[in-house]
Structure formats: structure tokens, C-alpha cells
Amino acid sequence: MDILKTIELSKTYGKGETQVEALKNVDIAIGEGEFVAVVGPSGSGKSTLLHLLGGLDRPTSGKVIVDGVDIYSLSEKELSIFRRRKIGFIFQFYNLIPVLSAEENITLPLLLDRKDVDQKYLGELMEILGLKDRKYHYPNQLSGGQQQRVSIGRALAYKPAIIFADEPTGNLDSKNSKEVLELLRFSVQKYNQTLVMITHDLEIASQADRVITIEDGMIARNREVRR
Ligand code: ADP
Ligand code: ADP
């Protein structure tokens, strides 16, 4: 089953002389449990696509269907609840809240929904993330790799069906990049999550089930990786 689908998805920014057609009639379908790498030159529309797939922005035209739901037919409020429960986001710049500890940053999505934190899962997550002895540290007391692990923890807290990652290893050295990727793949396999990742790293892309290449706002290639 396709967990993620777009129908003639388009996004235009600005108007007049500054108008940019960032995405042009994009049709893609992504299956449950797939790991998809999105590659392409800078400015080709990768982040725009990821943001639209994840309900962070609104398309100019076209649809995004997530798990059978036409997400842009939802109200702002419904969309934000849907996003929090179904989708995990990981960014290149970790976007952590500086006044919250590592553990508080991770459990924030649940607290915002007044949901109980599953202590067993949280413990397991902190263990996998290698943050067991960093629970009470604040972001500025953590290394870059640790901060990215916290942001991964926050994305995984709800056991989301889909994880979107925008250059998650872009700021990390090769050792930390490898670890972060392994972590993500571990979670994805364990919970049958779908992972869509923008990356410039061809070694990472080669580990994906499928590589989608975007050029000039269009799908230039869409290839399954054979093993
Ligand atoms: P990529 O992630 O592949 O680098 P983006 O999706 O960020 O590409 O950008 C695609 C195009 O849309 C670029 O030409 C960029 O300048 C433009 N763009 C992106 N975001 C905005 C925005 N908020 N306002 C205006 N133009 C934008
Ligand atoms: P890495 O190998 O992940 O890049 P660092 O060399 O940056 O790690 O940091 C080593 C250790 O020092 C980490 O465990 C981190 O928690 C701790 N640390 C880094 N920066 C600070 C800081 N500003 N305050 C407190 N502890 C820190």
C-alpha cells in the first residue's frame, strides 16, 4: 500500500519578477516501510517537496495523500495534530529548544498532546540514542552528534508512521553521520516506518530502497536500488 502519494503537486513562491515555480506537477507514490532518498542540485525543490509531503506548508495546487488522508483538506488545527502523531521531522539544524533538557526535548510532542510518556519505550529510545547519561543536559551542553540524536529522539517519540529527514547528517562528521544513519535505519526496521531523506551523500543514497532525483522542480529520475 502507498502510505504517501502526491497528485500533480505544484508550489509557486512569490509573484511577478520574483516568482519561482519550485515544484511542477509532481506525482510520486511511496510504499509503507520504504526508505527513499531524495537527491538533486541545490535549489531544485527537494526541501519544498519534503515540507509539502509532511504538511508543513500548503501547495499552490495538487494533493498530498498520507495514509489515505488528503492532508491539505484538513483545517490548520487538524493538520497540526495529524503531523504530530503521524510524522517525525529531522532537520539539518537540530531545532532543539534551548531551555529544555535532552529528555524534555524528546518528550515534548507527547506533552503538547497531554499524552502519557511510555517510560519503557523512552528508556529504550534513550539507550539506542546513546543519551542515557545525557537526559538532564541542555542542548548547549551536548556535542553536535548528541544534539542530532536528541532531535531524532523527538522525531521518534510518537513512533511516527513516516519520518522526513532534511540533510540529517549535513553538519556531522563521517563517524557521527554513520551512527545517525544506523540509528534511523534501526528504528525504521523495528517499527516498519517509512523514511524519506534528502541527502547529498551518495553513500547514504546507495543504502536507500529508492532514489528520487529532482531537477528544476520535476522528477528527473525515480529508481529502485537493486541489491
Ligand atoms: P532544495 O531543497 O532542492 O535546495 P528548495 O525547495 O529549498 O530547493 O527551493 C526550490 C526553489 O524555491 C529555489 O529556487 C528557492 O530559491 C525557492 N524557494 C524556496 N523556498 C522559498 C521561499 N520561502 N520563498 C521564495 N522562494 C523560495
Ligand atoms: P563528539 O565526539 O560527539 O563531537 P565532543 O568532543 O564535542 O563530542 O564532546 C565530548 C563530550 O563533551 C560530549 O559527551 C559532550 O556531552 C560534552 N560536551 C561538549 N560540549 C559541552 C559543553 N559546552 N558543556 C558540557 N559538556 C559538553
Give a short overview.
The protein is an alpha/beta fold and 227 residues long. It is built from 7 helices and 11 strands.
Description:
Helix 3 packs parallel to helix 5 (144-156) and helix 5 runs parallel beside helix 6. The chain has a single domain (2-224), classed as P-loop containing nucleotide triphosphate hydrolases (Rossmann fold, 3-Layer(aba) Sandwich), CATH 3.40.50.300. The model has no long low-confidence stretch (mean pLDDT 93). The chain has helices at 46-53, 76-86, 102-112, 119-129, 144-156, 174-190, 202-205; strands at 2-13, 20-26, 29-31, 35-39, 61-66, 69-70, 87-90, 162-166, 194-198, 210-215, 218-224. The chain is α/β, with parallel strands linked by helices. A six-stranded mixed sheet has the order 7-8-9-4-10-11, sandwiched between helices. Strand 5 (61-66) and strand 6 form a beta hairpin.
Secondary-structure blueprint:
Blueprint: E1 2-13, E2 20-26, E3 29-31, E4 35-39, H1 46-53, E5 61-66, E6 69-70, H2 76-86, E7 87-90, H3 102-112, H4 119-129, H5 144-156, E8 162-166, H6 174-190, E9 194-198, H7 202-205, E10 210-215, E11 218-224
Parallel strand pairs: 4-9, 4-10, 7-8, 8-9
Antiparallel strand pairs: 1-2, 1-3, 1-5, 5-6, 10-11
The structure holds adenosine-5'-diphosphate (2 copies).
Keywords: ATP-binding, Nucleotide-binding, Transport
Family: Belongs to the ABC transporter superfamily.
GO cellular component, one term: membrane protein complex
